[in-house]
Amino acid sequence: MRKTGKKVMALAAAALMAAAVTGCAGKEASSKEGQSQQAADGKPSVSIMVPTFTGTSLANEGSDKVIQMYEEYTGTHVDWRWEQDGTYDEKFGITLMDRDNMPMILGAKKDMTANVVDAARKGAFWDLAPFLEDKEAYPNLSQYNKEVAKAMTVDGKMVGLYKAREIGRYGFAYREDWAEAVGITEPPKTIEDVYNMLYKFTYEDPDGNGKDDTFGLEMTKYTGPLDIIQTWFGCGNEWVEQDGKLVPVHQTEEFKEALKWMRRIYEEGLIRKDWAAVDSGTFGEACKKGEAGAFIDVMDGAKRIWQYYESNDVKSVVDPSKTASMKLVGPINDKTLATSGYNGYFLITKAGAKTEEDVKACLHFLDKMCDDEMLVLADYGLEGMNYELTAEGKIRKLSDIPLEQAASNGLNQAIPYIPNIIAASPELEQDEPTAAQYAAYEICRPIAVTNPALGYLASSEVNAEVGTDIEQIIDDARTQYICGQLDDAGFEKAAKTWLDRGGDRLIEELNQMYQADQTK
Question: Which Gene3D superfamilies does this entry report, sorted A to Z (predicted)?
């Protein structure tokens, strides 16, 4: 399907010649009961509220052309309601209560909140699952991941359409020249392999400067790496299914084994002693500065460290004629942490989309936005202005135009990214670090450990009441245990506090929902 670039240009030409009414055309839409909302030219019209991160969404040089292109391609007029990201959550809450001013599509950030669940139970949103059974009408959206969609489900109804994010994003990475310098020739596969690498990176002078100034693993008070390490031991992702029941991972023997291992690398100095007090905003800097050699987090983070080496001409310690590089391994012990699979979601409101035809118009628009042509337009901009096609038919960015000035800035806020997170054709021309990132995703994706409780937590009244508070109890106790401030008895006392403050009720409620779920 290498024709996409030419097709996008053809769309542009057609859009410029079309006598389409754009911009405010949606305001002329019919909203009579039983009729779909249409613009003056008879095309469906949808309204959507989403955040703007720059304040210039679809308002830059070339944006008029982008608007004409996506409206021509989707056959839909769009009335955008942009709200500043910094105040979006507040505006979102107000909008939920303002039925007279409700958009048809309401974009939500991050996870489903208690107020969304409450509104869903009161019938504020359409159940989208029955519509998405129509694979012919929605060839993209009908391919949604049903496990991820469980987090969008309230009382058996799929009220949200998730905005996809890579599931296999987390993993292990390390500095290749350091490994070579200390005699490691193969990427680590087991937990013991990782320990040996961290030990050598700390005590065998991997940078060759004769000083005791390196440590194995970069850590800050951001505890994401600990969550990933835990999965290597088989304890699961926040919750785990054991003997037909959902169990919080901190109650498992595998978790305790992982805790002891993490305490060991702390006691042996393989991570910095003050890690729990280091600003999480500096995460990645220790690897960039040559202070640490291993990195555990998202693989795109490891890619950016590698790109830093290239852009700053950081030389390999074993071959100064080459630039330092990162090896993106991904899983250890054939396991890694899965992401939730989404980052935000779309609600189709009954106050805005009054009829089934309105819902279909919304889903048609969102589905078409997942086509390669629209992914290219939203993520790469305009051919000739923002990118060109190489002789191999790949996208090559022409310049680093700041996001706030890009012609298509903001358009990606209307894309669910189902089934593809990036355009399949034409592909983006990738540098070596980016190619390694996507290769790691491919390895991680099928084995990433998911959270079996994710689909029930959104509907959990107990989780809405105490979830955040009791989660902090375990997080704090884990950190204190690793740093030697708690012993086994101290951690068990914290786990008992977790139960007493609502954890016991949460376990009971989630398992009631789990046992009643006929789709699991």
Answer: Periplasmic binding protein-like II (3.40.190.10)
Residue 159 lies in a domain: yes
**What single-letter amino acid sits at 252?**
T
Query: How many domains, in total, are found in the chain?
Result: 3
Closest to 337 in 3D by CA, of 493, 186, 214, 445: 445
Q: Give me the phi and psi of 345, to 5 degrees please.
A: -165, 170
Residue reference for tokens 């350091």 = 178
| Residue-range definition of the domain harbouring residue 464 | 460-516
Residue pair 317/207 in contact by the 8 Å Cβ criterion: yes
Tell me if 317 sits within 8 A of 178, measured CB to CB: yes
Pick the last residue of a domain from 373, 406, 428.
Answer: 428
Mean confidence (pLDDT) of the chain: 91
pLDDT in tens, 7-56: 444 444 444 333 333 333 333 344 444 446 776 677 899 999 999 999 99
Instruction: Identify whether 445 is part of a domain.
Output: no
Indicate whether 449 belongs to any domain: no
Task: State how far the Cα of 518 lies from the Cα of 265, in Å rounded to an integer.
Answer: 43
What pairing do the DSSP bridges indicate for beta strands 395-397 and 387-389?
Answer: antiparallel
CA separation for the pair 404, 41 (Å, rounded): 32
Assigned domain for 102 exists? yes
The pLDDT value given to residue 71: 96
Is the pLDDT score of 3 beyond 60? no
Domain boundary (302, 337, 372) is at: 337
Q: What is the CATH number of the domain that holds 308?
A: 3.40.190.10
3-state helix, strand, coil in the chain (%, to 5): 45, 15, 40
Indicate whether 506 and 358 sit together in one domain.
Answer: no
In the numeric block, which tokens belong to residue 69? 């292109």
Q: pLDDT of 148-183, one tens digit each?
A: 999 999 988 999 999 999 999 999 999 999 999 999
The edge-to-edge listing of strands for the beta sheet with 326-330 is 215-217, 292-298, 170-175, 326-330
Give the C-alpha separation, 363 to 129, whole Å: 11
User: Is the pLDDT at 398 greater than 90, yes or no?
Assistant: no
Note the pLDDT tens digit of each residue in 113-158: 888 999 999 999 999 999 999 999 999 999 999 989 999 999 889 9
Handedness of CA 455, 457, 458, 460 (dihedral sign): positive
Spatial CB neighbours of 150, under 8 Å, sequence gap ≥ 6: 454, 455, 456, 519
Q: In the beta sheet, which residues pair with residue 81?
A: 49
Q: Which helix (H) or strand (E) holds 440?
A: helix 432-444
Shared domain for 217 and 137, answered yes or no, is no
